[in-house]
Each structure stands twice: as C-alpha cells, then as structure tokens.
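Hi C.,

You asked whether I'd gotten around to modeling the 385-residue construct. I have! Everything is below, sequence then structure, no commentary in between.
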Amino acid sequence: MRRSQILVAALPVIACLLAVQPSVAPAAEEEQASARNEEGRFLSRVRQLTFEGRRAGEGYFSTDGSRMVFQSEREPGNPFFQIYVLDFTTGETQRISPGTGKTTCAFFRPGSEDILFGSTHHDPRNPELQRAEYEFRAAGKKRRYNWEFDPEMEIYVAHGTEGALERLTSAPGYDAEGSYSPDGQWIVFTSTRPAYEGELSEEDSRRLENDPSHFGEIYLMRADGSDLKRLTEAPGYDGGPFFSSDGKWIVWRRFEADGLIADIWRMRLDGSGKKRLTEFGSMSWAPYPHPSGDYILFTSNKLGFDNFELFVVDFEGLKQPVRITYTPGFDGLPVPSPDGRRLAWTSTRHGSDHGQIMLAEWNHESVREALRAAPPRGSGPQGGE
C-alpha cells in the first residue's frame, strides 16, 4: 500500500497505549498544554472527517478541492479496503471500486473525472480470501505483515464515479501506490515486478516469501499505461511516490535494504538528481509536497518507535525538519488541499483503535516561518524537538 501498510502495522500497538490513561502530574499537564499550543501554530479547527466503517485513511482531494477520494473498510462481507468519494458540498459518499477484493491508493486525475486506484477485484479467489481474513481475525491472530503486497494487485482507472473500469497494468507482481502528474498525462507508481522478471537467488526467494516489499521500485508511465520506465534500482522498498506541484520532481520514501529505516527522497522525472531529504535514522515515510512548492509534509516515528507524528521538510532538504503534531495517537499520511489552506491526515487521536481521516485549517505562513528559523540540516538534534 502506498503509505498505509505502516499505518496498519502501527495501530494495534497504539491502541494498547491509548487504552491506559494514567493520572497526569501538574508538570506533565503543563507540558501537554505547551505541546497543544505548539501544534496550534500550524493546525486549527481540527475535526474528524470520516466516521463510518472500521477504519479509513489516505484521503486525497480533487483538483478543485470539492471532493475527496479515500479508502475505508466498511463494505459488508469484505474485510479489506474499498475506494470511496466524499462530496464536501452534499456530504454524500459513493463507492467507486467494485466492492470485492482489496483496493488501495486512489487519486483524482487533474482535468478529468478519472480516478486511479489499485485493486485485486479480478482475482477469482476473493470470496475465499475475504472469508479467511474474517476467520483469522475471529481467532485473535495477528499477522507479521498486515499488508501483503498481493501480486494480484493491479492499477485501474475509473472513468468517473459511474464510469467503466480500465485496467492499466498486467505484469506479475504488486502494482499500486499510483498518482498523476499535475497535467494528468503521467502516472508514477510502485511495483514489485522485478521479483517476477527472472530467476531469483535462494536469498531473494526467501525475501520474496517473507518481505515482498523489498522488491518495490518506482515506475513512470503515461496515463494510458504506455511508455513504462523504471526510475529506481537501489536494494530496498521504494514507494509512495507523488509529483511536485510544478510536475518537475517526484518525491518518495526509500527503505534501507533491512526494511527498518526509511527516508524521504526526491528525483527528476527521468530518475536523475536523486537526493535524500531526511536522515532521522528512523521510519520517515508518506511524503506529500505542499502546492506552494516550499516544503514536503511527511510522517516519522523519529520521536519513538510507536510515536508517529507529522513533520515538514523544506524542498531542498537544507534545514532540519519541523514537527507539526503533538497530540497522543497516530498521526500520518498528510495531504494538503489544492489551495494549500487545509490539511487532511489519518489519525487515531479521536480515540478509536483504528484510523479515521481528520481535517484542519493549515497555517502555511507559520510553517514557512518555522522552517526559516530551523537550524541547518546536520547541526544538532533533528526533528523539531
């Protein structure tokens, strides 16, 4: 999944932490109040946007900001995500995916009613897999990997909320985590197809069985699926790519080969100019460029293994990242509105064991001021502590 596999893995631990609420000493209360004030510099009118279903996340705005496409587990008889569109004007929500199998990573095509997403609805095993997932949960079991990088996952485009589905990829391996360029002419996405293109060594065969994400690479193709080009080659999971607002850059997150450390990177559309923008020594992921082009929002557990918070880093990666959220619970998958004045993200701050989408007003000027005041990258502790 573009960014949510990390979210899903983290939520059970976060839920356990939230279940215990010890008494708070006066000093701790003062510290918490200070933290809320710090968050208030950047976020105001924070409210929960989605409520229905077991979980929801990865909300992305339409080009005009009037709608949001997101994924949610709410379809009767299906324990996996499906894709929905929320109309901010009417308040109505409509499912656009077929309703069966697994789906993920939806995105509006600029200048069009098309909606991109990954799906396995074509897999004839879906009824069996859905039933098995319910039985697995009922038994109280937990998976080592909550997102399995299903090799049946392919990229589809829905031609409008009522339109037909068109399949864009068909190679063996997981194809998902796609997004459009600002002009709607290109798609950047993640694929594990390198694992299926030739004979694997014994070591890589074990990797594929235990951690298929290791083979994830970034690809670029035209909106119709033609002119495919691979952009990354380094060992480890490259994923979650998005275009910059001017369409000249791609931002993504790269995991090291051991799968433990991830950082935010950027590159040109031809794969050149690769540059690492963070170096927290932790799991930094879910990058999304602000439409101003000044900075990139992302998620990191730099402050503690189970403590995922939102951060921003300047687009050149010259300054230490600035911390945005301070509220207990998971905060991740940040997405600004097209006008840059609102922020949507996935969170458990509402008290549920599972994430829902939050919405807030975004103070762009305060963020720019904080970045200007941040120390240069490489000087002192990083992370806006």
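If it helps when you're writing up: Residues 4-19 form the longest helix (16 residues).

Thanks,
B.
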